[in-house]
Amino acid sequence: MLGPVILAASRSDKMRRLISAAPVTKPVVDRFIPGETVDQVVPIIEDLTGKGLEVTMDVVGEDITTPEQSYAARDAYLELIGRLKELGLGTKAEMSVKLSMFGQALEGGHELALANVRPVVEAAAAIGTTVTLDAEDHTTLDSMFAIHEELRKDFPGTGCVIQAYLFRTEADARRLAESGSRVRLVKGAYKEPAEVAYQQKSETDKAYVRILKILMEGEGYPMIGSHDPRLISIAQELARKAGRKLDEYEFQMLYGIRSDEHVRLAAEGHRMRVYTAYGTDWYGYFMRRLAEKPANLLFFARSILTKG
Description:
Its cofactor is FAD. Helix content is 53%, strand content 13%.
């Protein structure tokens, strides 16, 4: 039951200051977030793609309080896309964006986020890749889906993320599982109330399988966001039963978690995409990684005990 406690800490300024100042934090954070700048992360992209993997890049940072910060977030993605173009990696790398980083929570935030994300989607399309809109807490989803629908009018490959622990997601999956759609399914990593989300892991896992079946039997392109060996095996079986070829779906896992499995799946012919985050505002992303899986928290705790 530590997950909800950690998620609550992810919203605490006091905990942010405490953890950020701890001398052991940076080497642990580096496991999940391999750099703060484009220059630092480029070698990571080249290494991963050189192993036959693909990547989705996330510039971390969600606590936007001014429009100027949202413009800076937009520009950070445009800088990244420019570097990917220089490297000729447009077909191997896509972008993942959180609309909160583009100003979604500010006054007039829906329009601001759409205005900020559109040039990023346009630039991505120009180098042969695309953008996926990450899901955040349930209060933001109607706005996210509306922006997704608007972007797909001109850029039909724009993807979105759905979260298995939310009660609404099965209906969302049925609506999204259409020809040309790209949908990443994850379990969910935000603290959500019992009125809108499953609270037990077992219930979330069952929902994940039900939703994945909808996506696999649909006409879109499912992206399986999970490190769970059992769910990966189930996904392969559902794909087989749905008659999908290996290039008609993909697996996605986080940088720094089960790296051997990334390579193994790619070697078997699967499309395997590594979700790779970078940037200076890493706290919220890092805390959700700890909350998602007890092994991540144990890794952090061991680091504190051995280096403290």
